[in-house]
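Re: folding output
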Amino acid sequence: MKSIVNRIVVVIMVGALASVAAFGKTHKHRVTFENDIKVNGTVVKKGSYDVKFDDATGQLSIIKNGKTVAQTMAKLEARAKKANGFQLRSVGAGDETELTGLTFGGSDKDVVITNGSATTTGSN
């Protein structure tokens, strides 16, 4: 009887730890912008950046050389199927191109930028 109770306790603990690990996942991808692009009104100069999204907080960050260049809030929306690779979505052209969302490779969710919440930090 004691052995069964111990096994049940172990199974419950493993399940609890696994569920905690499922929350708050951070996704990161290296991207090169061929042209300047706006992130909710913040201009991000062309070049290579790390794009990071935190599921728990809904914060999308554009980072260059370890410094955050732009941050904005975003939300996850379900996709019909998993993405084959990393995808960026934008609207406009030239100097008026604005990032509207992205998808990390293998994900079944799109990251969609919510309007009116961009902030800029650092200098570039």
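--- second protein (sequence, then structure) ---
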Amino acid sequence: MTDRASSRHAPLPPDADAPERVEWAGRFITARTRGRWEFVSRARGIGAAVILAIGSGRVLLVEQYRVPLGKKCLELPAGLVGDDAGGEGEAPLTAAARELEEETGYIAAHWEDLGEYFSSPGMVSESFRLLKATGLTRTGPGGGTDGEGIVVHEVPFDRIAEMVADFRAGGGAIDVKLLMLLGAGILGDAQ
């Protein structure tokens, strides 16, 4: 298999330069069209921070009910950046530290920025900043705020695939970002 990405780029679709139109705007999301494309973006420039919190051979995962899915979802801790009034210009690291403690009850001594990623670029323009948190110290129970009802799971690395399979078998949803934790297991002998 060869990597052709360095030698050529995909051509732009005919409506790439079409005018963008706002079809509907709410407090947190905006529905837009551009030519034949329909997509959703975050309102007011809000972004997201996703936390890969690891320590002592474990990763922190959270479980919470997600209304759009109609079921509980297993995810990495995460939260919005700059969503509160006066929060414009908030740094992703600031939001990540706040969300880690709110959702999991942990703080981190060390942070590493792993870059910007897009979760579903064919439908959503939202990106998220992935931040790795290490040197974890428990400061409280976690669980989120305002009735979020978040359940924290401290999962040993060697049990991540089992946890995901069990959660899915029980009818729960799995956030696509968990694929990075399953990568080696999914690739198997293809590596």
